[in-house]
Specification:
The complex is a heterotrimer of chains A (146), B (375) and C (367). With 146 residues, chain A is of the alpha/beta class. In chain A, 23% of the residues lie in helices and 29% in strands. Chain A is built from three helices and eight strands, in the order βαββαββββαβ. With 367 residues, chain C is α+β, with helices and mostly antiparallel strands.
Chain lengths: 146, 375, 367
């Protein structure tokens, strides 16, 4: 069985390395600040014992007042998983750092989030719409689209 | 026969006009032109039917069986369907080249049959350089195909045409060298004379030559596994991607007419042409052509396609050395007068030689490789 | 004299014989050599994730059929597992066994298409494709018996399956199971050792294990690269931990290995089905549930090993009758991440077979 890592334990480890980076944490997941996302992600991928080298998926959820971007990570070596999240409170121009440099698998999925939610990922090599055409008005998966 | 020397006069002089024909030359010409056109069109329909039904059986399905008895009218239905279709010319196409291409491709396919004997002496023109004529004419189709690819102003067409030109230029050499072995044994360039010389089919005397010719012939006319000029899974339809209606029908016709032509040449060179017991000669000829064509259908349904660089490598690194070896060995045997004196020894030796050199060459000298280019 | 050449752009698709649907590749070519490639998606985008937000939990199952439309059963299963995880529903044992049988039959059916289409891309003019369709047809017949459909089965429900197996199902399945190993041998004989196929596919489009993991590649493509990772073993769902089967892996991760991998996986699926058939218990096939499922607030991610890779559903509930957010993890889309690295420097013909060996369904990419 894949063991879900405790968000609290991992949060304390991240907090130790990067103070002030974790917003909140629970048993299931942890939320990191947007500007610490890349550091935290690199820490999770490269730390001995965590080795979260496989990015299962990236997605976003619209909670009206903020977007939550969900990263579901797992380690093929230790067979454990962890969910980390990052929040964006700006609805007009939401921006988060891109994790493509760490996990190339995020490439198309971040483009999908950009297309359907309008969240821009900085430093993504090819940040443009993926399913809808250039010039499509709005981002369909936002709750206020219809 | 006038003189043995090669001149323009010899090129245009028709050798075997039967003197007893009323009206002489022109009647003969008219009659055999009609026969050739009729033969090609009927054979194309026949082979299309064989291909579609045969392929159906090999692929565990039925094949077309609704039009006419056993689906025999399917080629007719196909033809009518294609002819009634709208003729679409791309806006960016070179109109004249686009229009001219199917004509230029079709004419040579038909012209090949001028020198192929249906019976002893029953042919449009018994050229004393018949096989040279075939080799020369058959490569003219390539011009038409390249015009189609260039004139369509479509990238798939261009890729297909480029592949076709590359393939034909390379495969012409082993093809001709394979023929030379037969010519040495028969002692004549006239196709009719070659058939007359075949007391036993030359496939027995030239087994390696037959394989080489069959392979190179398949490559020349885009039959599988060398059908990458019109590889449907890669470049859609190759050079005729942008053709529709009547012009597409012409290319379709060319494809099968060329297949019939290669089958007919193989029949003439290696399988004893119209010769055979019991049945009338023309029937023997048709049966053999159908058999050769069936072998082509068989390879088409069985083998995957090879890649363009492998295609080139196969021609230059495998077929060319093989055909040179074959030519050398045959020449020695002809010098030693084996074809007349030691015919059974020659059969056994040639089969053994074929098996050994193919085995050695494919094991130690040549393997279909793979290559990636750093970009 | 050096010949001046310039690269040109070839638009492959959206309507092209071997793009497996409406998929487009913008390939930059230097003669026959692929310099660069950019996949373009969206021709089949139906907004299934958005539609799901306005439907009840039960009403989403038919939508999942339309994701990867050649493996509907797997999609049903992944979705139902997610709902069950979210709402804490327990599934009767017989239903679990039926689900496993269906999922594995579906895997065989989908892999048959994958292998057939791959060989077709190699240029084996439809023969292997039609041979494999012959057997897929028998599996589809079995599915028709249980669900009445031949493509979009909509058979599984949260809490079980929609109805019990009909009487004629087990004899038909047994007959199929007796025939299938023979057909598998036939496929091996057909092209496995073919000289041309080996020359075309071996060493072509190599994807290393590290690269595959970094690109989040999953399924047969990942295992062909030598990574022993199968969710059925690593994170067993349903009742997969009760069966005895192996996870085959290959060494190099080229097109030929991906082809071999799929064939081997079919054999393992047969093993699982045989065990499930023998152990199939009797009992109810569906848990007693209210008409409208109203899971507690929360989120759940359930994943299965679909024929193409890790298929997951990430559901967020706000304690209403429709999910607040339904995200689908599409294996087809994510496996394509690695495509660009794999094809650069190869020829156009290789581009087609590398693309074919990844095995995608556009319905799942675009959703």
């Amino acid at each position: 069985m894949t063991i879900p890592l405790s968000g609290k334990d991992v949060a304390s480890k991240i907090e130790e390395k990067f103070p002030g980076s974790v917003v909140e944490s629970s048993q299931d997941n942890l939320v990191v600040k947007g500007n610490f996302l890349l550091d935290a992600a690199r820490f999770l991928r490269d730390t001995e014992g965590l080795d979260l080298d496989f990015l299962n998926f990236v997605t976003a959820v619209d909670y009206y007042d903020h977007f939550e971007v969900v990263y579901w990570l797992s380690s093929l070596e230790h067979n454990h998983s962890l969910t980390i999240k990052a929040r964006c409170y700006d609805r007009e121009n939401p921006v988060l750092p891109s994790v493509v440099g760490l996990w190339q698998g995020a490439d198309l999925q971040e483009r999908e989030i950009f297309d359907l939610f309008g969240i821009k990922f900085e430093d993504h090599p090819n940040m443009k719409r993926i399913f809808l055409w250039e010039g499509f008005a709005g981002h369909p998966l936002r709750k206020d689209f219809i | 026969m006038a003189t043995g020397e090669l001149s323009i006069y010899n090129l245009v002089k028709f050798q075997a006009i039967p003197p007893d024909w009323p009206g002489g030359f022109w009647w003969h010409w008219l009659f055999f032109t009609v026969v050739v056109i009729g033969f090609v069109l009927t054979m194309v329909m026949g082979v299309i039917y064989i291909e579609r039904r045969g392929m159906g059986r090999m692929q565990s399905r039925l094949g077309p069986n609704r039009t006419g008895p056993f689906g025999l009218l399917q080629p007719v239905a196909d033809a009518i369907k294609v002819l009634l279709k709208e003729n679409i010319v791309p806006v960016a196409a070179d109109k004249i080249v686009h229009w001219l291409a199917p004509v230029i491709a079709f004419a040579p396919a038909l012209m090949i049959f001028a020198v192929i004997p249906f019976e002893n002496g029953a042919l449009l023109a018994d050229l004393n350089i018949g096989i040279l004529y075939v080799v020369a004419i058959s490569s003219v189709s390539t011009v038409g195909i390249f015009m189609a690819g260039w004139g369509s102003s479509n990238k798939y067409s261009l890729l297909g045409a480029m592949r076709n030109v590359a393939a034909v230029v390379s495969y012409e050499i082993p093809l001709v060298l394979a023929i030379v072995g037969v010519v040495l044994i028969a002692g004549s360039l006239s196709l009719n004379q070659m058939v007359v010389a075949q007391d036993i089919p030359f496939i027995l005397l030239q087994p390696l030559g037959f394989l080489l010719f069959f392979t190179a012939g398949c490559a020349e006319i885009n039959r599988s596994p060398f059908d990458l000029m019109e590889a449907d899974s890669e470049i859609v339809a190759g050079f005729h991607t942008e053709y529709s209606g009547m012009k597409f029908a012409m290319f379709y016709l060319v494809e099968y007419a060329e297949a019939v032509a290669i089958s007919a040449i193989i029949t003439t060179l290696f399988l004893g042409g119209w010769r055979g017991p019991l049945l009338p000669p023309w029937l023997w000829f048709i049966v053999k052509v159908m058999l050769v064509f069936f072998a082509m259908v068989w390879t088409r349904t069985t083998l995957p396609r090879i890649r363009i660089d492998q295609l080139m490598a196969f021609a230059w690194k495998f077929l060319l050395p093989m055909s040179l070896l074959n030519l050398f060995i045959t020449a020695l045997q002809v010098l030693a007068d084996w074809p007349t004196q030691l015919i059974w020894a020659m059969i056994i030796v040639n089969f053994a030689v074929m098996a050994i050199i193919i085995l050695i060459w494919s094991r130690f000298f040549f393997r279909l490789g793979w290559g990636r280019i750093e970009v | 004299m050096a010949v001046r050449t310039e690269p040109f752009v070839l638009n492959m698709g959206p309507v092209h014989p071997s793009t497996h649907g409406v998929f487009r590749m913008r390939a930059t070519l230097d003669g026959e050599v692929v310099i660069d490639i950019e996949p373009v998606f969206g021709y089949l985008h139906r907004g299934i994730e958005k539609l799901a937000e306005q439907r009840t939990y039960t009403g989403i199952t038919p939508l999942t059929d339309r994701l990867d439309y050649i493996s509907s059963m797997s999609n049903n299963l992944a979705y139902c597992l997610a709902v069950e995880k979210l709402a804490g529903i327990k599934v009767p044992e017989r239903a679990e066994y039926i689900r496993v049988i269906m999922a594995e039959l579906q895997r065989i059916a989908a892999l048959l298409i994958a292998v057939g289409a791959f060989l077709n891309d190699c240029g084996a003019y439809f023969t292997p494709f039609l041979y494999m369709f012959r057997e897929r047809e028998r599996i589809v017949d079995l599915f028709e018996m249980v669900s009445g459909q031949r493509l979009t089965y909509n058979y599984m429900r949260a809490g079980g399956v929609s109805q019990d197996l009909p009487e004629e199902f087990m004899p038909a399945l047994r007959k199929f199971m007796d025939m299938m190993p023979r057909f598998m041998d036939e496929y091996d004989r057909l092209l496995m050792q073919n000289e041309i196929l080996i020359a075309r596919a071996k060493g072509v489009g190599i994807l290393t294990g590290e690269q595959a993991i970094n690109c989040s590649v999953s399924g047969p493509v990942l295992r062909a690269s030598g990574v022993n990772w199968d969710i059925r073993k690593a994170d067993p769902y349903s009742i997969y931990d009760q069966f005895d089967f192996d996870i085959p892996t290959q060494a190099t991760g080229d097109c030929y290995d991906r082809y071999r991998q799929r064939v081997e996986e079919m054999r393992q699926s047969l093993r699982i089905i045989r065990q499930a058939m023998e152990q199939l218990p009797s009992g109810p096939v569906r848990a007693e549930l209210p008409q409208l499922i109203r899971p507690p607030t929360g989120e759940a991610y359930a994943r299965i090993e679909a024929p193409k890779g890790e298929l997951g559903f990430y559901l967020v509930s706000d304690n209403s009758i429709a999910p607040y957010r339904c995200h689908i993890r599409p294996p087809s889309l994510i496996n394509l991440t690695a495509l660009r690295d794999m094809v650069r420097g190869w020829k156009v013909a290789d581009l087609i077979i590398i693309f074919g060996s990844i095995d995608i369904t556009v319905g799942e990419i675009d959703r």
